[in-house]
Amino acid sequence: MTERIATDVSNMLNNYSPSRDFDGLIGMDAHMKEMESLLCLDFDEVRMIGIWGPSGIGKTTIARVLYSQFSENFELSIFMENIKELMYTRPMCSDEYSAKIQLQKQFLSQIINHKDMELHHLGVAQDRLNDKKVLIVLDSIDQSIQLDAIAKETRWFGHGSRIIITTQDQKLLKAHGINHIYKVEFPSAYEAYQMFCIYAFGQNFPNDGFEELAWQVTKLLGHLPLGLRVMGSHFRGMSRHEWVNALPRLMIRLDASIQSILKFSYDALCEEDKDLFLHIACLFNNQKMVKVEDYLALSFLDVRQGFHLLAEKSLINLKFLSTKYTRIEMHNLLVQLGRDIVRHKPGHQSICEPGKRQFLIDARDICEVLTDNTGNRNVVGIFLEVRNLSCQLNISERAFDGMSNLKFLRFHGPYDDESDKLYLPQGLNNLPQKLRLIEWSRFPMTCLPSNFCTKYLVEIRMENSKLQNLWQGNQPLGNLKRMDLSESKHLKELPDLSTATNLEYLIMSGCISLVELPSSIGKLRKLLMLSLRGCSKLEALPTNINLESLDYLDLTDCLLIKKFPEISTNIKDLKLTKTAIKEVPSTIKSWSHLRKLEMSYSENLKELPHALDIITTLYINDTEMQEIPQWVKKISHLQTLGLEGCKRLVTIPQLSDSLSQLVVTNCESLERLNFSFQNHPERFLWFLNCFKLNNEAREFIQTSSTHAILPSREVPANFTYRANGSSIMVNLNHRPLSTTLRFKACVLLVKKIDNDKEEAADRRTTVIPRIRENDKIGVDVPWRYRFQLPTILEDHLLTFQIEADVTSNKLLFSFDIKDNNQAVIKECGVLQL
Questions:
Q1: How many other C-beta atoms lie within 10 A of the C-beta of residue 226?
Q2: What is the dihedral angle through the alpha carbons of 289, 291, 297, 302, rounded to the nearest 10 degrees?
Q3: In whole angstroms, how large is the CA radius of gyration of the chain?
Q4: In a 10 Å sphere around its CB, with 0-12 CB exposed, 13-18 middle and 19+ buried, how is residue 793 labelled?
Q5: 57-61, 101-105, 111-115, 450-454: which has the minimum mean pLDDT?
Q6: Which of 336, 371, 573, 774 would bridge with 596, disulfide CB 3.0–4.6 Å?
Q7: In its UniProt record, which GO terms are filed under biological process (predicted)?
């Protein structure tokens, strides 16, 4: 008796000792703030709250901190840890009811501190706790019977009780009627970096010389707290040399302890959902959901339902992009898990023989299989990132002969990569008959194999190919939805498409050898998009493309097309810039769906008031024009005006209030800008090779724009930070605490002396800005801040505004050029706005 009293007193003293276990946890304050708003501890109602997110994101840690902070405010409290594992490790019960009895018995034994209690029915929990204010944390719930056994209804507990459930399965929470759900998001880049450093270095910053390595590991782990903790502990105490040696393995292999936790969720899936998970991990991560649905329609009973199930279990994220598109996103570590599972799948000897695997992803494995002809019928998909090839790949002419079940072939190369790495020195005997997707950038043959079967094909994507034609004769194309042959400069003709009755997207941009389109296009009753931009030899469109489904038609740079296309009045986007079209049908004013009309300047347009109310983009190329005509100023919805080669134009007057982009090129007499912008969020003023601009015009361009380019020989003095070269360090006065900051940046582009003007004429300079925190710790600037510029004749200044999430007071701005070898960056500057 005395011993028991002493133990109880000791336990009480321990409970009243303030906890320091969770002090300093990165990002925890923000989680607590969100959770407190859901808990509503001042309310007397009984409330159930879900904490939802993927494995390893910190759900249990958040629940522990809550329990530590608030448990003393309740009469009784319990933290039941990892219930799903408890269910799998306890002795097997004869039925579901017995399992519930056992679980409730363990729950009550802990919460009321009665170890050997007897339990014969499930009403005991309500009988014992309905007058008690309790705090219950149920960790890692993965089955509804677990909730039914412990907390089936709120009326089981006394007023003011709170029941917190952590789970990966959102559907489980909703099925139990739990509407207060906290979705745990991934930490920011800087928070993840700090987390990793705490485990790797014992502090929230790295040791000297480890900055870049620590950032690399943080990125590889995809900001997952579990991975940051495990790998931080793994690297702790290692030398820099050991870090460098360990990194390559981390890129392709999961740590065993991380894998065991993540695989628990995978193992709980049914076989079909496991297979869907592997398809996403190996082939379709970061793809649009509607496209992947089409690819997998014949492989799964209900693909969309499968996606939602995986999302509810936090194995993928379905990111809403627009009313039409949702993107499938899978975390880096889950991608690695899926690929490891495929690599070690039993029954296929796949570790040593990659040609027997379901999916091929690793560049070295793919090289081996395609050169040695070792692929067999097990192979369902191949996904090669061409940039990962260290050397040229010579594919055997018989490479695909044994892959009778290959459905997805993806040779993915960057669109702007001009290097050929994939070769077919002996040609290609065949492509598998069951292919649903073929993506082969820079395809090296002039025609597809003569026995190529298109029966199951959903998408053909072969940009920058050497194709002259696809196939001969009439092929079954009933499943085909998308065809993209952009920049296939040798393509002379399209095949008969009369059977492609489900085709939605036909993209032929930059096919400069294409002379005509097949009349069968008129039968494509589901066609949504037709892009013929830059098809400079195309003289006319078929007369029967009055397709009600067509939303988008782009004829930009189709220089020989003279006649306004005979299209449906349902069209939404119509791009006719740099064509020979001069007439617009009077009926266009009644085209209620039309939101964008892009035209080239013609004097005839002023006689067409119905067009002036609709045009959104106007392009003018007139060497004799001395002033902008009055009727141009009256185009009420004009958003973009392009002026090229207007050599006698001296002044640009006030234009439509709707204007937000003015692109002026090679207007050698232009001096004055007598207009102002309205309050548009983004204002583009591009003046390339306009060397006579006066000082007032230059100042206006720089101060009124969000993005601009103009002739200049130096970085303006108003940029607080200036430097020679292509990078600059910025020290902010006050360290921001994870906030979004705006900057104005500029680069001075200098033409290379040895630049061949003719060689560079058709090529563009791409300027890519980047921001790094703490010297090397970085935030990549989004794609929308990358600029493509045509040929410059002299030095030019490019200025632009950048918005970035910043958590450090020390930023390194760097600017890279990916181009035609025509310009270099001489100076750069940054100004905080």
A1: 21
A2: 10
A3: 32
A4: middle
A5: 111-115
A6: 573
A7: defense response
